[in-house]
Amino acid sequence: MKRFTWFLLFACFLFVIIFFFSLTQGAADIPLQTIKDACVDFDYQNQLHQVLRNIRLPRVLASFLVGSCFAVTGAIMQGITKNPLADGGLLGVNSGAAVGLAIAFILFPTIQPSQAALFSFLGAFVATVCLFLLTKYARVGMSPTGLILAGVALSSFFSAISQTLSLQFDLNQDLVFWFIGGVANVTWAQLRFVAPIYVLAIILTLGMGKSLNLLSLGDDTVIALGKHPHGIRGVALLLVVVLAGMAVSLVGPVSFIGLMVPHVTRGLIGKNYQLILPLTIIGGGTLVMAADLVGRLINPPFETPFGVILALIGVPFLLVKIRREQL
């Protein structure tokens, strides 16, 4: 527990540092004194105050929100499948949410945050159901290799559907920034809609730690303790759908966060999900904030979406993990 406390304090410290760096750095540098002045006495005629409130702050908050969503989604999926490679991006859940988002753009040309989130939830739900039906009836099983193969197939299938819809209905301009993973266009209206859902989902997720620990002991043990393994998995999958759908509705289908962050967290503090989940939430959010900051600073004034930065890290990470696990 002492080890967890130290890592949690370090993660919080890192979060604070990157949070303030993210507010100050970008196409327009904002001094810390200006941030303080904007908080104490906001001036509508001050351009830097406007940039901070309407662009920089929602962007940084959205980075943390989607990073924590993707990371904890990976942790949950790894817990219920007992698969170290489970991740919403690799298993097609994020791509399914992206299909739902594309359909929302077709049906609602002037799309609202609630409509984007709802259809992303539905897309993530359909993808999750398809994944588990495929593993159950296609004889690929729940082994690491079988699950990843099923996930890659589903991800490719849903990506193809997204591309087809995008071309057929001329959605490229509307969807392109979502699909490469960026937070520059996130608005306060979107954050106000998803924030209550996010808070509730995160609270419920933190309460799942003990149940995920029980699942690691096997279904027979869970039943012997008077619990229902299928019920636990059902609630966990519902949280996966909500968290993944919410994140995709903001920034698009970003992979590797849910693979990397829970894996590193387990390596630091062990396999207790009551400790893994809170550290994963902070770690995932901080990672995406850092990736977005790096993307802004690589080649100013042009920006590299954080999804590209994470892919450059995540692909080698996945290959190394596969080699070490001999999957």
From TrEMBL:
Where, per UniProt, does this protein localize? Cell membrane
Q: Which residues cross the membrane?
A: 60-77, 89-111, 117-135, 147-169, 175-191, 235-261, 273-298, 304-322
Query: What is the recorded name of this protein?
Result: Ferrichrome transport system permease FhuB
Organism of derivation: Candidatus Enterococcus testudinis
Membrane topology classification:
Multi-pass membrane protein
Q: Name one GO molecular function term.
A: transmembrane transporter activity
Looking up InterPro entries in the UniProt record yields: ABC_BtuC-like, ABC_transptr_permease_BtuC
Listed GO CC annotations: plasma membrane
Looking up SUPFAM superfamilies in the UniProt record yields:
ABC transporter involved in vitamin B12 uptake, BtuC
- Cell membrane: present as a keyword of the record? yes
What is one Gene Ontology biological process annotated in the Swiss-Prot or TrEMBL record? siderophore-iron import into cell
Q: What is its main location?
A: membrane
Q: Which UniProt keywords apply?
A: Cell membrane, Membrane, Transmembrane, Transmembrane helix, Transport
Which family does the record assign?
Belongs to the binding-protein-dependent transport system permease family. FecCD subfamily.
